[in-house]
Amino acid sequence: MPEQGGNPRENAGVSSEDILRAQVYGLVANFLSASPSTKLLKIGAGLKGDETPLGKAVGTFAHLCERSNAEAASQEYHDLFIGVARGELLPYASYYLTGFLNEKPLAKLRNDMDALGVTRDENASEPEDHIASVFDIMAGLIDGRFDEAVSLDEQQKFYDTHIKSWAPYFFRDLEGAKSSVLYAGLGSIGRVFLEIEDTAFSMVSAA
Amino acid sequence: MKPSDKKVDAGRRNFLSLAGASAVAGGAAIASGGTPTEASEVAEGQDTRLYRETDHVRRVYELSRF
Q: Domain for residue A71, yes or no?
C-alpha cells in the first residue's frame, strides 16, 4: 500500500486558499456520495455563511441542514439519485455529456486517473464519473491527499475536462429538482463555487 | 508548486479569499476530513489512492484552524 502519513512538507506548500477549495470540493462530495448521516448533517448545520454569494449559499445550506434529519435527508437522496426505477437526476459526466451512462467521458476520466496515479476505491460500485467521485479527485489533486498536490495547470486541465464541461449543469438541475430541499441548498453551493473556480482559473490562464 | 507559479497565484489567491472561500471555514474542514471511520476503513490494507483521507491531511486541517 502507498506510504501512509506522507510527508507533511508536501502539504505545507498548499496555500490556505487552496486548502479551502479542497474543503469545498470535499464537503460537496460528502453530501453527494451517500445520504448524509446525522453527524454529517450536524457538521453542515455548523457551517457559517457571510455576505459573499458563496457565503450566502453556505448560510442557507447550514440552515437547511439544521432543519433536516437523517431520515428526511435519506428520503430526499433516494428520490433524487436512486428512485424506484431511477432517481430524478443522474449525476454522471457521461450522462450529462452524451445522454448515456458509461460513455466516452468515463473512458477519458479513467485514462486521466491512470495518468495521475489515482485508482478507484474497490468498494465503490458507481462508475467513476459520478459527481462525488470527480469532486473527491479534484480535492485530492489540490491538497495532495493521494500523493502530492498537483500544479494549478494540471488542476485546471482536470477541471476543464471533467468538471467544467458538465457539473455546472448538474448543480443547476439539483437546485431546481422537484425532490430537492436540502439538496437545492447544496446545488447552490456547487453552482456558486464553480463560478468562483472558473474565474480563479481564468486568472491563471490570463497571466 | 513551481516558484514561477507563485506570483501568478497571488492575484488568484487574493480573489479566492475575497470571493468568500473562507465562508466555508470551520465546518467544511471537518466535513471534508469527516466520515473518518469510513475513510480510514477504505484506506487500510488497500492499494488505492482514491478516497484516501490520511491522518496527515486531517492533521493539516486541524492545525490550519480555518
A: no
